[in-house]
């Protein structure tokens, strides 16, 4: 079987998404870049119960190269990311409850609350609504794709991207944890936003870390 290691990673992180309640039923999709091609979850697969034989290999145009199942219904979104972000090696799309709730009310998560989120993710943009599985989904990412690692898809869910599957998945956990914390905090009292100078300092640190500079 081709690309055994990457297939195993998709199975492993699909199971983690399911166990965390981020992808009930057959929701969500995962992909990894494999040389010049993409290994992606098949349409209709329950992410908690996949086997290494389930992911399918497609080329950058979405043509099936290896596998007997139909690629994910969100293949266009994944292909768009890889085409426009050569630094990205994996995509993770899920419907985590708290973050998806914010997508439904159309409220973005603030970018000046938790230092750890600023350092690991930066801003988390909220896209315009796009019917799932259509060309409108990648179009909704167009103005945000450069420089962002996580996106809340309006009335849909969350997309996170990373250099590898582990990083893309970890960013999904971070988005959902942040959304849960913010949901609890706004019901408990006034939100204490970081001041602009501190936010800017943290962003500079994040940029330096991204470029591999010593602090």
Keywords:
L-fuculose-1-phosphate Aldolase, 7 strands, 215 residues, 14% strand, 7 helices
Describe the model.
The longest helix has 24 residues, at 165-188. A seven-stranded antiparallel β-sheet has the order 4-3-2-1-5-7-6, with helices on both faces. The protein starts with a helix and ends in a 5-residue tail after the last helix. The protein is 40% helix and 14% strand. The protein is an alpha+beta fold and 215 residues long.
Could you give a short description of this structure?
The protein has helices spanning 4-19, 75-84, 97-105, 115-120, 136-141, 165-188, 196-210, and strands at residues 29-34, 37-40, 56-58, 64-66, 90-94, 150-153, 157-162. The chain is α+β, with helices and mostly antiparallel strands. It has a single domain (4-210), classed as 3-Layer(aba) Sandwich (L-fuculose-1-phosphate Aldolase), CATH 3.40.225.
